[in-house]
Automatic annotation (TrEMBL), chain A:
Assembly notes: Interacts with CtaA.
Taxonomic lineage: Bacteria, Pseudomonadati, Pseudomonadota, Alphaproteobacteria, Rhodobacterales
Gene name of the record: ctaB
The keyword Membrane is assigned to this record: yes
Matching Gene3D superfamilies: UbiA prenyltransferase (1.10.357.140)
Pathway the protein contributes to: Porphyrin-containing compound metabolism; heme O biosynthesis; heme O from protoheme: step 1/1
Organism: Tabrizicola oligotrophica
Identification of the protein by name: Protoheme IX farnesyltransferase
Residue intervals passing through the bilayer: 26-45, 51-71, 92-114, 120-139, 146-167, 173-194, 220-237, 243-263, 284-305
Catalytic activity: heme b + (2E,6E)-farnesyl diphosphate + H2O = Fe(II)-heme o + diphosphate
Mode of membrane association: Multi-pass membrane protein
Recorded superkingdom: Bacteria
Keywords: Cell membrane, Heme biosynthesis, Membrane, Transferase, Transmembrane, Transmembrane helix
Family statement drawn from the similarity comment of this UniProt entry: Belongs to the UbiA prenyltransferase family. Protoheme IX farnesyltransferase subfamily.
Pfam families: UbiA
TrEMBL record, chain B:
Superkingdom of this protein's organism: Bacteria
Regions of compositional bias (Polar residues) in chain numbering: 53-67
Spans annotated as Disordered: 43-67
Protein name: Cytochrome C oxidase assembly protein
Protein species of origin: Tabrizicola oligotrophica
Amino acid sequence: MTDIRSYEDSRDAGFGDYVQLLKPRVMSLVVFTALVGLLVAPVSLHPVEAFTAVLFIALGGGASGALNMWWDADIDAIMRRTKGRPIPSGRVQPGEALAIGLALSGISVVMLALATNVMAGALLAFTIFFYVVVYSMWLKRSTPQNIVIGGAAGAFPPMIGWVAATGSVSVEAFLMFMLIFMWTPPHFWALALFMKSDYGDAKVPMLTETHGRRVTRAHVWWYTVALVPFSLALGFTPIGGNVYLAASLVLNAGFLRGAWTIWKRDEVAAEADGYKVEKSVFRFSLLYLFLHFTALLADAGLRAWGGF
Amino acid sequence: MALRVEHEMHQRRFSRNVGLGLVLAAFVALVFALTVVKVTNGDRMHADDGKANTGTVVQPASGGSQP
């Protein structure tokens, strides 16, 4: 019976635990934005090549997620939100996560380069490097601007999709990058305002902890103001159109209004209504990004159809 | 009496093995499909004669008379 008891102590990971390492929810955003970047490009790929490109861009994002979990296992074990992740809960060994992350990084970069072009593969490799080394290893624990610069990693997928189709970076790809890059800080700081996080216990310098909530509220407003010109400018490039411009105007007005309200109210008012405004701005910011990219897709569809 | 080994650990291992098997099969199918697309849609290949962009154009084999 001793043998049986020792089996019960063993913690072999199931397939789902390895999938969890790849941060599937983040991957869904990567898939969507990379797909839009690829579909709105003026050069069209064969469907099999396009599918392969999006798959390996997503897998590259997943690989960087696994490497991030490997590196951050110590702070993940402290914070409530991340305690249940595969490594802190003991279902996956840190070494396994490292091996999977490195192997998938290599496979995704090589396969993307073979399926499309070397430039796209190189850009994916840089994205993984940026997320793992620049964000996770360097900035996350050293500066409250971690969200700002780390947001670049999440902003690369539509640019990689574009480069996979065209072979080079252009102003459209740059503006799609800037749209996500500038959107990330107000999105996360709105979340940080109403999430009673334990970043402080894990010694991760979040703006709400280092500079206080008053400063964070001001940051949400000013970064939203800085986001607007980039999102509108995208509407005046060849991939923009009437649908995008109309959607962008409405969405920017909504985001600015919400950010202004966040800036102008204080903690007492926020506590009183259970952070109602902050929560609604956070939800709106998700819709903001999703609808911007959907509008790009709609305009591309209309152009292909010959309508506009 | 038959020996039963259906411990929860075995289920986890089974899920892992099946999952990995499916992923590998899908990867093989994808590489195959990609190869077919690349070969059938590919440009005519240039023989490498060591000079930039001046390589001899190799026509696709018309088939039939190869030894």
